[in-house]
Structure formats: structure tokens, C-alpha cells
Amino acid sequence: MHISLKQQVALVTGASSGLGAGAARALAAAGAAVVINYNSHAEPAEQLANEIRSAGGQAIAIGADVSKEDQVEHLFAEAIKAFGFLDILVANSGLQKDSPIADMSLADWNTVIEVNLTGQFLCARAALRQFAKQGDRPGVSRAVGKIIHMSSVHQLIPWAGHANYAASKGGVDLLMRSIAQEVGQQRIRVNSIAPGAIRTAINEEATHGAALEKLLKLIPYGRVGDAEDVANAVVWLASDASDYVHGTTLFIDGGMSLYPEFRDNG
Ligand code: BGC
């Protein structure tokens, strides 16, 4: 199977680091022009854009807070100005503000819901409007457009001490499936990726030392994931190779969602 995303334009939110950066790099390697969205970290986003351009690809970095309607509108307008089209949205921006539920501030609840859930709504809506405007792109992609929501195993697995995060990802699941049900007939494909423990900055602490040993007990496949594990799936879901995949969540978690604690219990 050879995957090419040549002539396609991908916008990846939260792409200055972690899973977003990995996805942007892989999409560019597959031939897509890539819009690298960042919120506060312009420098690594610009660096990544430079790296892609030096390798012969097309990339541009654009700042925007995905939880703000006007900034999302500006992000998409700038992306279209730069590359003319949009074929792929990877709605990846996300953050954690952890605390026991009784101590959780309303501000931390709101921030997580606004970025992880409202941000995905705003970006998906902007992408859908652009797909409708530009219509079919024959010879470029079988689908009129593709949206990939970055969810988490915690759309399924409850997570004590992270109720805001788990609620946001549970929301992403039904957001994704409701959009997929609504726009499938327009030949727009909508799916999610639900990563488990991946070695990125968001879980730096959990993937080293004693914490790593504890974490590995939750992963039947016996290793922490890498950003490339997720990036490869992003490229596949964005390509015609997955053209019949719609409204699905692909868990990339080494089996974390198999509830491995039940192997010798229950
Ligand atoms: C979180 C990580 C966590 C993983 C598995 C992800 O969604 O961002 O911090 O390690 O889920 O629990």
C-alpha cells in the first residue's frame, strides 16, 4: 500500500509539540502541504515549518487559540490564503488541568472543556464550511474532506483526578459520531484517534522511572507508545486507503482499553 497526500492541504491544531507535531511531520512526509497551528509556542512551530520546507515540503505556522471563535476563523482564513484549499483537519489541540474533583476549580474545568471540546467543535465547523465551499477535488481525494479528532482512551476509561479531561474526551466521541452521521452523505469522512500512553511532554512524568513501571502494568502490549505510532494512523485515516472508514474511533493504546487489571481479577 502506497499512501500519497500530494496536492492535499492539512491543518493540524496544537502542532508545536507532541502528537500534533508528529502528525504534521508525517502528513508533510506523505506529500501534504501542512498548516501548523500553535497557541503560545510560536518558536517550535516555526522551526517545524522550516524543517518541513528544508526537506522540500510545504508548511506554514499560524497562531490561534482554538477555543476562541474569532481566532479559529482567522486561522482557517489564513490557511486558505496560504494554500487555497483544505482537505484534512486534525483537531488535535488538548490539555490537562488535573485535580481531585472536590478541589477542581471552575476555571480548570472550563479551560479543559473549552480547549478540548469546544475547540474541536469550532475547528470541525470551520473545516466543514470550507469543504462545502470548495466541493469535490477529483483526482486529489475520494472524500470531499476528512476530519480526524484527537480523542483519548479516556473517552472510554474513567479517570479519577482528571474528570474534566475525561468528560471532554467523552464529549469528543459523541461530537465526532454526531458530525459523522450528519455529513457522511456529503462524502466527508469524520473519525477519531484515541491514543493511550504516548511518550510526549503532556505525560513526561508518567513515562519515566517508578511511574513508568506502574504505567506499563496498564499496557498489555508492554511498551509506551511513540508519537509516530499515532502519526502513522493519522496519515492512513487522512488517505484514500481508509476511504470506507467513517465515524470510527481507532484506539492506539497497546491494549490499554482492554482493562488489563481484569486479567487476573474480577
Ligand atoms: C493522556 C495521558 C495519559 C494517557 C493514558 C492520555 O489521553 O493525555 O496523559 O497517560 O491518556 O492514561
What would your notes on this structure say?
The protein has helices at 18-29, 42-54, 69-83, 106-134, 163-183, 209-216, 227-238, and strands at residues 9-12, 33-38, 59-63, 88-91, 145-150, 188-195, 249-252. By secondary structure, the chain is of the alpha/beta class. It has a single domain, classed as NAD(P)-binding Rossmann-like Domain (Rossmann fold), CATH 3.40.50. It has a 7-stranded parallel sheet, sandwiched between helices. The protein starts with 8 loop residues before the first strand and ends in a 14-residue tail after the last strand. The mean pLDDT is 97. It binds beta-D-glucopyranose. Beta-D-glucopyranose binds at residues 152-154, 196-197, 202-203, 206.
